Amino acid sequence: MPACDPASGATGMRLAVCDEQWLFASVLATALAQQGHEVVTITDQPLVLLDEAARLGPDICVLDAVTGPPSLIEFSRRLHAVDSRPAVIMLTDSGHEEVWEAYGEGLLDGLVNKACAFPVLLDAMDRVAAGERVAAGWSTPERRSAPAAVLDALTTRELEVLRLVVQGHSTQTMADRLGVSRHTIRTHVQQVLRKLGVHSRGKVARAAAAAGLVDVAALTSVRRPRR
């Protein structure tokens, strides 16, 4: 089981629960309700969750990885676009590339391993509600020296941009933080993608962590303003 550091959870959030295993969804919803949360919908169908989220406006949607169609990325984008903009926590034992891509693109506010104890989910919910992004219960990639070519190729400024990309910041926010133009940031991002050998921002986090360049869990456990 991954090493997790649970904390006690606050109560009173409106939740939507979706898992393609109905029994698990039902048991999880009951456990959450016993903690004082209001579970406004329980379903084993992701498309139903989309409809219910738009209709009921939950604060947080807790769901497992979507097997599609639609794809996980498309589903996350559609859930992200719901008018009430619920926070989205994926509670899953799937660590496949598409899950991390959705997290890296900022489409998921939390990513919690199903192998963790229940209090870890409660803690993640509190932190997400407070505006943080959370990756809990995923083993940090074993620290090893990044390939010399990658370290040598990335400039100090590109490493700064890399960390901001992993945190999910927009091009404008990165430009403001570093005091440069949006065009300069886009150029740096393209160089980072090229040097890491990936083709989208969503894949940067995993590639950088695998190379030992960043600690994804530490970088993404920061407060971000809720929209």
Automatic annotation (TrEMBL):
Instruction: Please list the residue ranges annotated as the HTH luxR-type domain.
Output: 147-212
Which Pfam families has this protein been placed in? GerE
Sites where 4-aspartylphosphate occurs are at D64
Is Phosphoprotein tagged as a keyword? yes
Q: Does the keyword Ligase apply?
A: no
Coiled-coil region(s): none
Q: Which InterPro entries match?
A: CheY-like_superfamily, Sig_transdc_resp-reg_C-effctor, Sig_transdc_resp-reg_receiver, Tscrpt_reg_LuxR_C, WH-like_DNA-bd_sf
Q: Which residues form the Response regulatory domain?
A: 14-129
Alphabetical keyword list? DNA-binding, Phosphoprotein, Transcription, Transcription regulation
Q: What is this protein called?
A: Response regulator transcription factor
User: What organism does this protein naturally occur in?
Assistant: Kribbella alba
